[in-house]
Design goal:
The protein is an all-beta fold. It has one helix and 26 strands. The protein has a domain of 244 residues: Neuraminidase (6 Propeller), CATH 2.120.10.
């Protein structure tokens, strides 16, 4: 595989109503002959009242325009992920973290997160039996039939105090793995319409440890999960259809180059974990993934039988990538390295 081209597709200079901002966590999808990329805009990396999501669209991958801007008064619209539903609607999926307009000084260092939630509702005069005082975040979606006109926000009770991250649709249903909050041990969710979700499996993470996760499905319904932050930095899980109650987990090994010495455990390569993993199943059946490793966006080929990740190439960028197969190429979106001021797009040839 080799890089065909890379280009900048957006920058902070194109934000008309802000003098100062970061742009990061881009995701990518193709819908109705157009490309859609979304990313977070915010003054700081951590939760902040300025956090919002911008969706941009392009017919050719070169000229981009704003298609939507998702904001929530009193909330940070975190790393939004895009998907196409069974009803052929474009879906933006996120978790809104409730924040305060003013920083909290007590209990946080200068490098901490002074705008964190819970204190916003925990004020003098709040009834002791008010359950809302304990709500820190809400998973939510927006839907669009054409990519330009979007409906109102969709929330349901299962999305309270969790983060349903990446969403993948298979055989008419959408699947997502919730983490943090009430889903500290991981929960597998399923939806039919992208609005209402139900629990499919609790205690999803191996040994109760996990973070962001990406799913892919085989033709026979077998599910694969690429997990960040489990008992090792990157793990592969295999789930049995049709109800995905039984999962087998394996620690990954890394083949950094084809002629490298014996394969290493992933912890020796990632030096932390695999940030923002995105896994897809190609039309020929191969599994590919991209994520942040060693401070760079890295593309991997996955052998799910051996739980082996083979590095294909690295991109000079960071943040959580989007990954789409299109006409014998992989299209990858990622953030600028270090500055969080630009969004880039790379086209990679899949020829060996």
């Amino acid at each position: 595989m080799q890089i065909v081209e890379t280009r900048k597709i957006w920058s902070v200079d194109q934000i008309p109503d802000r003098e100062e901002s970061r742009i990061e966590f881009p995701h990518l999808i193709r819908f109705r002959e157009h490309w859609y990329c979304c990313f977070r805009e915010g003054k700081i990396h951590m939760n902040h009242p300025s956090g919002r999501c911008r969706v941009i669209r392009s017919a050719d991958g070169e000229q981009w325009e704003t298609a939507a801007l998702f904001e929530w008064n009193g909330g940070d619209v975190r790393e939004t992920r895009l998907a196409v539903t069974a009803e052929n609607r474009l879906m933006a999926n996120t978790s809104i973290y409730f924040v305060s307009d003013e920083p909290r000084e007590i209990g946080y260092s200068s490098g901490g997160a002074p705008y964190e939630s819970h204190y916003q509702l925990d004020k003098p005069g709040t009834p002791e039996d008010d359950l809302e005082r304990n709500v820190a975040r809400q998973s939510a979606t927006w839907l669009s039939a054409d990519g330009k006109n979007w409906g109102s926000i969709n929330v349901c009770p299962t999305g309270i105090n969790n983060w349903r991250w990446d969403v993948v649709w298979n055989h008419g249903m959408g699947y997502s793995i919730g983490y943090c909050g009430k889903d500290h041990d991981g929960t597998l969710y399923r939806t039919r319409d992208g609005k209402n979700w139900r629990v499919l499996k609790r205690n999803f993470f191996p040994e109760g440890q996990g973070n962001e996760a990406s799913l892919a499905f085989g033709k026979d319904g077998t599910a694969w999960c690429l997990l960040r932050g489990g008992p090792s930095p990157a793990m592969i899980g295999i789930g049995e259809p049709p109800f995905y109650q039984n999962w087998t987990w394996r620690h990954t090994t890394i083949a950094v180059e084809a002629n490298d010495p014996p394969y290493m455990r992933s912890k020796d390569y990632f030096r932390g974990d695999l940030g923002g993993p995105k896994m897809i199943r190609l039309q020929d059946g191969r599994l590919m993934a991209a994520g942040r490793a060693n401070g760079r966006v890295t593309l991997f080929r996955i052998d799910h039988v051996k739980a082996m990740l083979t590095k294909c190439l690295e991109l000079e960028g960071t943040s959580y990538p989007g990954l789409v197969e299109h006409e014998q190429e992989l299209w990858i979106t990622y953030g600028s390295l270090g500055t969080a001021s630009e969004i880039h797009l790379a086209r990679v040839s899949m020829e060996e």
